[in-house]
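As a next step, the fold was encoded as tokens, giving this record:
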Amino acid sequence: MKYALVTGGSGAIGESICIALAQDGYHVVVHANQNLDRAKNIADVIIANGGLASAVCFDVSDEQQTKANIEQLLEKHTIQVLVNNAGIHDDAPLAGMSSVQWHRVIDVSLNGFYNVTQPLLLPMMATRWGRIINVASVAGIMGNRGQANYAAAKAGLIGATKSLAQEVASRNILVNAIAPGIITSPMTDSVFDQTTINRIVPQKRAGTPEEVANLVSFLASDKASYISGQVISVNGGMV
């Protein structure tokens, strides 16, 4: 039995990723930042459908809190699939962006990657098999007005993905990034109307969380055994 940790698992995309990995036979650890009940509900749904899951709650931007929770997880089992999906945005033009807005987004989306991934690496390497999948964004590739903080965090995540892939390849650990475009969720539904989607997305529709989860499922599988250090977009042809 392999264990998978999905940070931000209580969100719309995270939930779909958790369900997909559970269907693939992983015991999924559903992570939440604050809403532990939501994470537990997702785990309960997975269990009700014949899968294996548990829930955990901690702030990925808090290094000590994250380390303590990771150590508790490692006392029970080694995490061999890690999906760094936790992220937030707090948008404003850079000229009007506060220091709090800048650092908060960087802390969760980029520093959170370090805080979660670093303590899991040596145990994962010891098993000589692993998958690390980082959820970046189209903003990290092409930028986006009003999202300098978010784009910087996601671009940094892409750079970290490519570097880490080289560091752990000899241990049969694959590291890839996914760059979603406009994906249907409560967060995006209020931002992108259909007119905007028609203008910027060649397929003229938003993607679904399940379409992102399908790619995670593939990258976590043995079918992707020669794919590492890559950034794969899920964006309906935007770039």
Q: What stands out?
A: Strands lie at 3-6, 27-32, 52-57, 79-84, 130-135, 173-180, 231-234. The chain has nine helices and seven strands. Residues 31 and 80 are 15 Å apart (CA to CA).
